[in-house]
Amino acid sequence: MSPNHPVTLSPCCGGCSDCRICSDARRDDSQLCVVAQATDVFTMERAAAFRGRYHVLGGLLSPLDGVQPEDLHLAGLARRVEEEGIREIVLALSGSVEGEATALYIGRMLEAEEVTVTRLATGIPVGGHLEFVDDVTLVRAFSGRLPLS
Fold first, then answer.
1. Inter-axis angle of helices 97-109 and 74-83, nearest 10
2. Of 17, 49, 80, 138, whose CB has the highest number of CB atoms within 10 Å?
3. pLDDT-derived band at 8, boundaries 50, 70, 90
4. Cβ neighbours of residue 20 closer than 8 Å, sequence gap 6 or more
5. How far apart are CA 13 and CA 15, in angstroms?
6. Residue 132 pLDDT more than 50?
7. How many domains does the chain have?
8. Distance of CA 137 to the CA centre of its chain
9. What is the CATH classification number for the domain harbouring 26?
10. What is the extent of the structural domain holding 109?
11. By CB neighbour count within 10 A (0-12 exposed, 13-18 middle, 19+ buried), where does 96 fall?
12. 78 lies in a domain?
């Protein structure tokens, strides 16, 4: 199934009690990582870089494929921000047109809330060669550059 088509929520979407990720008291309740699919949660967990909780959208916005905001779990995301004291939303969505559209939609949806919305960095992958990098990735790598220190 395409990542743009909505699917059912995984147990690791938040608000559940039977998932080892959601029920882990050592997790940071103030951070919420938003992913498109349940499989993305397991990818993030494998890297062990994020210690907050997750919210699975069940897909990405894609009007051409008929996926509209009401087809995704966006209302639940808004509810969680409002009710759970979330201070940061980390968008871990693909760099595709659909991922970008979804990220922009979520950013606008949460403008009035007292929450910081961030995105995972994008750019040249470790071990990547410049000759194989597309223009958009190169532009993002330049705009997101960091000091060497």
1. 40
2. 80
3. very low
4. none
5. 7
6. yes
7. 1
8. 18
9. 3.40.1360.10
10. 11-121
11. middle
12. yes
